[in-house]
């Protein structure tokens, strides 16, 4: 019999790690991964995570299923971290929240919820460019995906006017996805004043804001500062939904710890929304994994561990900021005539270098420097040990 899969086409590779792995150059540099590395280029487990994990293990909890919406001590604390202790929706108990399979899972639950219940057009507008997975997640959720202007390649900065114009031109009541901080892939964020204007445009259009917050604390080193946009929208009376990831800010990547929440109008509405989220999640994966959520819960709820963690988040953010400065400094020392100020003005894990696909190819083939073709480099992969060689490679490629 003919195989059922005889007509399944070969898909393109989803990651660049393969080419990096195949390179035998001992000085090869991997700037493609979206994970923090220490100054030796090694994966980093936060000491607060080790301590929290020890507490979890020593408490000899059972391994019974969590409820459909996860570990309640975790979700409660996650909402507090995002919305803040003074948040009206939190105080009024009108935020529906569920644990999720990290940020990606939160986006997918959000996509599915909007597809099922959003009363307006089921179209979501995402920035150009956006995290590559946004398009796929929302399309697979059954939403139509459209774009709004975001990045200006001439200034290597925000196309603020284009963004606001596009928001104003969207049909009334459109769904708009916003990166809460540390925009991926560009590292370009609106300023607080610009966020105020963006909130106004969203409100004017009666649009529905969906915040993706994958880097809270990772951008500035301050979890409150990084939550500015979300909290400002709420102060303005908007009621967004939110995807949270603890992959980056707690370094819990593979533990898949996240949350999806919906700000509701009332406690009664929250109950109805909550009931439907459960109905959505049940056939997807029944209930989420517990170990990582317990770790995150310890960190968020134990005051001493919380303080330690906030210090460690700041250390990670600071190392990245230092590497940005060092890369720029090294390029200037080499005599590069290009303006590299965007490297230090951008924020978060990634720098959008402005290098073209051909230049990225040369970086890989001739210099064993691997990153995505759009010119995005993971600053977390830069160390005091490789920054000089990296700057030389970029200098050679850009002249
Ligand atoms: N959203 C953005 C913008 C991201 O950059 C990422 C990770 O790279 C995610 C969401 C989700 O990541 P995870 O599913 O690992 O939490």
Tell me the strand percentage band.
Answer: 5-15%
CATH topology title of the largest domain:
Aspartate Aminotransferase, domain 2
Helicity level, as a percent range?
A: 40-55%
Largest beta-sheet characterization: 7 strands, mixed
Q: Give the end-to-end Cα distance, rounded to a whole number of Å.
A: 59 Å
Low-confidence stretches: none
CATH architecture of the largest domain: 3-Layer(aba) Sandwich
Structural class: alpha/beta
- Which descriptor suits the 3D outline? globular
Please state how the strands of the largest beta sheet are arranged side by side: 2-10-9-8-7-3-4
- Give the class-level CATH name of the largest domain: Alpha Beta
The overall average pLDDT, rounded, is: 96
Specify the CATH homologous superfamily of the largest domain.
Answer: Type I PLP-dependent aspartate aminotransferase-like (Major domain)
Distinct compounds present: pyridoxal-5'-phosphate
Number of strands: 13
Give the SSE string: HEHHHEHEHEEEHEHEHEEHHHHEHEEH
Protein name: Aspartate aminotransferase
Keywords: Aminotransferase, Pyridoxal phosphate, Transferase
Catalytic activity: L-aspartate + 2-oxoglutarate = oxaloacetate + L-glutamate
Subunit structure: Homodimer.
